Amino acid sequence: DIQLPMYVAIAFTIFTLISAGAFPRPGMSFVLGLPGIALIGGTAFLIIANFLKKISQPRREIRNTLFLLIAFFAIAISFLLAGTYYSSSFR
Fold it and tell me: For residues 49 and 65, is the Cβ–Cβ distance under 8 A?
């Protein structure tokens, strides 16, 4: 069962983003940059995959999860190519 690790991942993501955004270093550049987006994206994938597993038939669980993974990769690549993230210099 993946229910408990999902709750731990959600709590970890929330507390990491709040604590990183609360201080001047790394600050909002962490939250709005690639590390924060990767944390949010990974957690969103985990939540959606868990929900998809619950509503899918047993024969189609793996296929639906694979389609979801391909969709997440396509969104991530388009997001990176478009450059719509905050890039910091960390100086």
Answer: yes
Question: Do the Cβ atoms of 53 and 65 come closer than 8 Å?
Answer: yes
pLDDT tens per residue, range 39-84:
999 999 999 999 999 999 999 999 999 999 999 999 999 988 888 7
Closest CA to 86 of 16, 25, 7, 29: 29
The CA-based angle 37-40-5, given to 5 degrees, is 145
**Radius of gyration of the CA atoms of the chain, in A:** 16
Quick one: tokens of 54? 């619950």
Measured CA to CA, the distance from residue 63 to residue 15 in angstroms comes to: 33
Tokens of 31: 């939250």
Distance from chain centroid for Cα 12: 12
